[in-house]
Amino acid sequence: MATKKAARKPAHKTKKASHAAHRATTHRATTHRAANDDSPKLSRRPVWQGNLRLSLVSCPVALYNATSRANDVSFHLLNPKTHNRIRMIPTDPDTGPVERSQLVKGYEISKNHYVTLTNEEIDAVKLDTTRTLDIERFVDEKEIDRLYWANPYYLLPADAAGEDAYAVIRTAMAGTGRIALGRVAMHSRERLMAVEARGKGLIAWSLRMADEVIPAEDAFDDIPEHKPDARMIEIAEKIIEQQEGDFEPAKFEDHYEAALRDLIRRKEKGEKVVTAEPVEETNVIDLMAALKKSLKSPAAGKKRKAG
Fold first, then answer.
1. What backbone phi and psi angles, to 5 degrees, belong to 4?
2. pLDDT digit string, tens, across residues 90-132
3. 135: number of CA atoms within 13 Å, CB side?
4. Residue 91, exposed/middle/buried by CB under 10 A (0-12, 13-18, 19+)?
């Protein structure tokens, strides 16, 4: 019995220390949120670490997400009777529940015919781009179709020792005004990256590969050729001029998310929620009349001021 107690005691201390650390972390996070607004923050953990290399010059760098979904409204699935959160349990249709740790990855080569791969086998596929973002080419930004731009990242120096090389690469790129292209292996695939100088640092964009982008010609192929009335085009251009303005993203609020947050707040207070009437859809019958009415509408000027 004494041996069992002695064995349990360190575990108890470890658990207690773990809880204390969790409380401290939670307190720091709560204090941090209270002291700051809801603007997105740079993650503490990079999504990739390695070296940025330009010919024979290299420096250690890290990629961080330049965007955040932390402030999005998200939901969990609950049992309506108990309000317990539902667990998603992997289940084999023949044998029943399966431990997630026992699962392997499978690639379907034909209907219900798979090639299975273990994590060790996948990790054994090592590429240079796993640890190095090697700049292969410099291009003009205008040459990259916007359909290919995907996700933005901040490319930051990983330690002080590489800051000089980082500054050299950034300054040289800023002077030429070119976009650097290279490749990085992350999230189980190799991605083409576009790197640009901005301010004191570098921004990297993941670019979609050619086999990911549907050609615009294919998408628009079924749209019939149509020549609009010149007078209608002229009025439409004037409406566009009325609503011109600077791009000010802070002035564009996500109205749907704001409505969701308001709904959650009212439900939390126990208020009775009334279902809104559906928005009546309007079909434009007289296009010319609608254009002329839009041109005279005072809303056009308000929209311009709103950004």
1. -65, -40
2. 999 999 999 998 899 999 999 989 999 988 888 788 777 788 9
3. 21
4. exposed
**236, part of any domain:** yes
pLDDT, greater one: 298 or 116: 116
174 with 296, same domain?
Answer: no
Specify if 146 maps to a domain.
yes
Query: Would you state the structure tokens that stand for residue 146, as one six-digit string?
Result: 């916007």
Same domain flag for 54 and 129 = yes
Residues 156, 62 contacting (CB under 8 angstroms): yes
Nearest CA among 192, 200, 195, 290 for reference residue 239:
290
Helix (H) or strand (E) holding 268: helix 255-268
Q: pLDDT tens for residues 140-160?
A: 989 999 999 999 999 999 999
What would the two tokens of residue 194 be? 């576009």
Contact 279, 259 (CB under 8 A): no
**Domain that includes residue 187, residue range:** 48-68+125-213
Please check whether residues 133 and 184 belong to one and the same domain.
Answer: yes
Is 31 within the bounds of a domain? Answer: no
| Domains held by the chain: number | 2
Would you mind telling me the total number of residues written for the chain in this entry?
Answer: 307
